[in-house]
Amino acid sequence: MTASSSSRGAGRQSLVEGEFVFTAEDFRHIAQTLHSHAGIALNEGKAALVYSRLAKRLRVLGLQSFRDYCALVEGLDGVDERQAMTAALTTNVTRFFREPHHFEHLRDQVMPGLAERARRGERIRMWSAACSNGQEPYSMAMTVLSVLPEAVDLDVRILATDIDPNMVAEGHAGVYSEEILDAAPPMLRHRFFDKAPAHGRDCLSANAALRQLVTFKELNLIGDWPMRHKFDVIFCRNVVIYFDDATQERIWKRFTPLMAPGGTLYIGHSERVSGPAMAQLRTSGLTTYQLAT
Q1: Would residue 153 show up in a list of annotated catalytic residues for this protein?
Q2: Burial of 191 (0-12, 13-18, 19+ CB in 10 A)
Q3: Residue 58, in any domain of the structure
Q4: Residue 121 shares a structural domain with residue 232
Q5: What does the pLDDT look like over 125-165, one tens digit per residue?
Q6: What is the Cα–Cα distance from 284 to 108, expressed in whole angstroms?
Q7: Residue 95 included in any domain
């Protein structure tokens, strides 16, 4: 700890040694704010991670202490910084066709029936409920188009939402390095991504078909959900695990009224549906659930 930080924090015990004093009280304030804003639960074992990520925000803002930072994010003018704090503390781990068994299930078990309905003129809707920078919804779109090539000309659309506006913007841009796209099946990658020389010689851009199929929006899973129509497929993977048990149960319960009869819910490999939703969902595959009809 530096002399300056030590003098500023005289009498306050820091959880982490570093440039700024970071007390247990500071941690509790940040954890409570993050929980109320995003539903994410933090325990004190994450103190070093919180410090390392938010110390950068203190430097950017020109603040002298975590106490000042807490006052900012809790204040009436702290809306933007609460969003920035959430983005800093959220781990956006994603990749194309992550947990491939879900996309195989979507292609082989779900899409044939949905394709028939779409060709009859019915409305088909899917939702990527924690889309990060777009790799999941574009994987969904490629899977849809591999079974239903004319999907963009039918009433088929994918909603992609995330709490982090930076991730939503990246998804909307739809530009990725070739290295990132190595996770996608080569045939689909070549079919649905074009060279993007304006972004660098090793970048690829989602083509028109993918862009027409996917719409990106900012949405907080513990906030208001403005959607009025039901979804045939929902992907909500590897995000609810960061919530406490009560919040997880509320999220699962909120999904079921938005699922069409027989609709499918895909969740992360470490997650399990819990609470009242269990009475309405039945297992139809590995971490895959179907709304009982």
Answers
A1: no
A2: middle
A3: yes
A4: yes
A5: 999 999 999 999 999 999 999 999 999 999 999 999 999 99
A6: 13
A7: no
Q: What angle, 0 to 180 degrees and rounded to 10, lies between the N-to-C axes of helices 24-38 and 66-74? A: 30
Instruction: Dump pLDDT digits (tens) for 62-83.
Output: 999 999 999 999 888 888 898 8
Active-site position among 26, 162, 164, 232 = 162
User: In this structure, what CATH number is given to the domain that contains residue 211?
Assistant: 3.40.50.150
Over residues 155-183, the pLDDT tens digits come to 999 999 999 998 999 999 999 999 999 99
Q: Which of residues 89, 113, 135 is at a domain's end? A: 89
| 77 among known catalytic residues | no
* Shared-domain flag, residues 54 and 131: no
Token pair listed for 213: 């199929």
Residue corresponding to tokens 């070549």? 190
Active-site residue, selected from the candidate residues 53, 95, 123, 211: 53
How much of the chain, in percent, has pLDDT values that exceed 70? 96
Domain count, the chain: 2
Query: CA 127 → CA 243, 245, 275, distances in Å?
Result: 20, 23, 22
CATH number of the domain within which 52 lies: 1.10.155.10
Give the three-state DSSP class for 47.
helix
pLDDT digits (tens, 9 = 90+) for 13-48: 888 888 899 999 999 999 999 998 888 888 888 899
Q: Are residues 70 and 138 in the same domain?
A: no
Contact 204, 182 (CB under 8 A): no
Residue 2 reports pLDDT greater than 70? no
Query: What is residue 286's predicted lDDT score, i.e. its pLDDT?
Result: 94
Co-location of 140 and 202 in the same domain? yes
Residue with tokens 């009869």: 261
Spatial CA neighbour of 243 closest among 129, 144, 80: 129
Range of the domain at 151: 100-291
Say if 72 falls within a structural domain.
yes
